[in-house]
Specification:
Helix content: 10-25%
Order of helices and strands: HHEEEH
Structural class: alpha+beta
Number of strands: 3
Strand order of the largest sheet: 1-2-3
Oligomer: single chain
Distance between the termini: 35 Å
Largest sheet: 3 strands, antiparallel
Radius of gyration: 15 Å
């Protein structure tokens, strides 16, 4: 029997929630901030932000020695507005 692992990420940012959401989810922005260290980068990313949509970030060593895709499929999507108006 396989059990799912749940990972929760949290952070507090002093900026408008709409701007943070755009920077967190936009592929053109993900490639700018998604790196494990200074010698790694994310040269490409896709993000289909809907239930059933896929996300993929290709992470690579800047020296070209190795790289890999990190991705998955969304099973639930809650926008910041969903969070703001949760009752």
């Amino acid at each position: 029997m396989t059990t799912a692992t749940v990972i929760t990420v949290g952070v507090q940012v002093n900026a408008p929630v709409e701007k943070v959401w755009q920077l967190w989810t936009g592929p053109e922005h993900i490639v700018k901030w998604n790196s494990a260290s200074d010698d790694w980068h994310t040269p490409r990313a896709t993000n289909d932000l809907r239930v059933g949509g896929r996300f993929v970030s290709h992470m690579a060593a800047k020296d070209g020695s190795m790289g890999f895709d990190f991705g998955g499929t969304y099973t639930e999507v809650k926008t910041p507005i969903d969070k703001i108006y949760d009752g």
